Amino acid sequence: MTALTLSTAATPGLKADAIVIGVAKGTASEAGGLVVAPGAEAVDKAYDGRLTGILETLGASGAEGEVTKLPAPAGFKTPLLVAVGLGTQPEKDAAPDPEALRKAAGVAARALAGSRKAAFALPLTDEADAGAVAEGVLLGAYSFDAYKNAGKNDAPKSPKNPKDKGGKGKKKDAKAPLAEAVLLCDKSRDKTYKAAVERAVTVSEELNRARDLINTPPNDLDPEAFAAVAQAAAKEHGIKVQVLDEKALAKDGHGGILGVGAGSASGPRLVKLSYTSAKAKKHLAFVGKGITYDSGGISLKPAGHNETMKCDMSGAAAVFAAVVAAARLGLEVNITGWLALAENMPSGSATRPGDVLRMYSGKTVEVLNTDAEGRLVLADALWAASEEKPDAIVDVATLTGAMMLALGNRTFGIMANDDAFRAAVHEAAEEVGEPAWPMPLPEHLRKGMDSATADIANMGERMGGGLVAGLFLREFVGEGITWAHLDIAGPAFNEGSPFGYTPKGGTGSAVRTLVRLAEQTAAGDLG
Question: Is 375 a catalytic residue?
Answer without folding.
Answer: yes
